[in-house]
Design goal:
Blueprint: E1 5-7, E2 13-18, H1 23-42, H2 50-74, E3 78-82, E4 86-89, E5 92-95, E6 99-105, E7 111-116, E8 127-130, H3 135-147, E9 151-154
Parallel strand pairs: 6-9
Antiparallel strand pairs: 1-2, 2-3, 2-8, 3-4, 4-5, 6-7, 7-8
């Protein structure tokens, strides 16, 4: 058995997962926040102007996004469990009838997104990558999707953080 795989019964397989890396997001937010702070030193903005509120509103949103991104990056790994007719991702059960598509983004460390009927984008709790080598988990996911007749595609998808 592989490092990331653990068998819990004959019909259920569990793999360790984590949220895909957000380091590029963290770096871009640090850069944009740094530029905003630097610009605030160069230019004085009238307290009564709209630009003042837009500037500090944007700075506040950037700092909040930075904190959320760091929190996501530091979270503990979770688990995905494949059952006969459902997936359990970090303790949340998703029935195969709810899933419209499973999307794989990337090649070396692929991010996987599970698109469900109620959402037009991939919900953050259904976006993950496998820990300890993605090949066994990827093969189990592909086999599960074929068994349950769920479309699996390789393309980019939008995710929150």
């Amino acid at each position: 058995m592989n490092e990331g795989e653990r068998m819990s019964s004959e019909t259920e397989t569990t793999f360790k997962i984590k949220y895909p890396t957000v380091i590029p997001t963290i770096l871009s937010l640090c850069l944009s926040t740094g530029i905003l702070i630097y610009l605030s030193r160069l230019y004085t903005i009238n307290l009564a102007s709209v630009a003042f509120y837009l500037y500090y509103g944007w700075l506040l949103l950037s700092l909040i996004a930075l904190v959320v991104s760091i929190y996501i990056e530091c979270r503990k790994p979770g688990e995905i469990q494949f059952a006969a007719d459902s997936l359990t991702v970090n303790g949340k059960v998703v029935e195969n009838s709810q899933i419209t598509e499973i999307i794989v983004m990337g090649y070396f460390k692929p991010a996987i997104g599970i698109k469900i009927r109620e959402h037009t984008i991939v919900p953050h709790h259904l976006c993950f990558s496998f820990i300890g080598g993605s090949d066994p988990g990827q093969r189990a996911l592909t086999a599960w999707s074929k068994r349950n007749e769920i479309k699996m595609s390789n393309k980019r998808f939008f995710k929150w953080f």
